Amino acid sequence: MKTLSRCLIPLACLCALALPAGAAEKGGDYAKDAASAEGTPATVPHRMDDKAHADCLACHLTGVRGAPVTPHPERRDCAQCHVQGEIKRNTPEKKKDGKKR
Known about the structure:
By secondary structure, this protein is mainly α. Helix content is 35%, strand content 0%. The protein has helices at residues 2-24, 30-36, 56-60. The chain starts with a helix and ends in a 41-residue tail after the last helix. The relative contact order is 0.13.
């Protein structure tokens, strides 16, 4: 009986500790996590389409339209490290009547 209680008590304690930790896990907000972690790759403030991954260097190699120039152009799979962030709008929204706001 002592042997059984020696195994069950630690096992019960581990389960009791693991349950609240698992319940605290939520769906990841990867952009927020990346932005708050020091030393991590920058988030991408524009839409990242699947076919556009190959086109990142079209703007980021030379800084077209104010795009930040990449410090590592030899790395071609940008989405391997960078995640989608909050999308910034560069153009003014149009009202339903077609006029800009």
